[in-house]
Amino acid sequence: MTLVDSLMVSLIGFAIVFFVLIVLSVFIQLQTVVLGYATATKGTDIRNVPTGAEKAFTAEVPEIVAEGWSAGELKLLGVDEKTAAMIMAIVSHESQIPLSELQFKMIKAID
């Protein structure tokens, strides 16, 4: 094999590698767009969440100073304590932040 033949084989090899990389890049971008569109249309409409009570009430969570992990008080407007606990647990799980590091000021039901 001559020098020219060796250069041609290596250039063809480089061209194939770059072509495959470009195809993979386009495929990943296409997947990102399709999956982004699919998850955006699955969103929950917050207006369909039941409030559970007609009037808003406020519940204050007592501050636990001795244990050192309380973030203060929490105002609940139109939400019972069980629902608020579930909302806080879901936010903690989805954001992958420990519940002890989150600080909730108010949870309000939207009619």
Question: What features would you describe in this structure?
Answer:
With 111 residues, this protein is mostly helical. It folds into 2 domains: 1-43; 46-108, no CATH class. The protein has helices spanning 3-41, 81-95, and strands spanning 75-77, 106-108. Strands 1-2 form a two-stranded parallel ribbon. It starts with a helix and ends with a strand. The chain crosses the membrane at residues 6-28. This is Oxaloacetate decarboxylase, gamma chain.
Which features would summarize this protein structure in a list?
2 strands, 2 helices, single chain, mainly alpha, two-stranded parallel sheet, 111 residues
Number of strands: 2
* Unreliable segments of 5+ consecutive residues: none
Terminus-to-terminus distance: 79 Å
Please indicate the count of domains: 2
Sheet/helix structural class: mainly alpha
The helical percent reads 40-55%
Structure annotation, total helices: 2
**Quick one: overall form?**
rod-shaped
Strand order of the largest sheet: 1-2
Strand residues, percent: 5-15%
Q: Report the radius of gyration as a whole number of Å.
A: 28 Å
Quickly describe the structure.
The chain has helices spanning 3-41, 81-95; strands spanning 75-77, 106-108. The chain is mainly alpha-helical. It has 2 domains: 1-43; 46-108, no CATH class.
Question: Strands, helices and their partners?
Answer:
Layout: H1 3-41, E1 75-77, H2 81-95, E2 106-108
Parallel strand pairs: 1-2
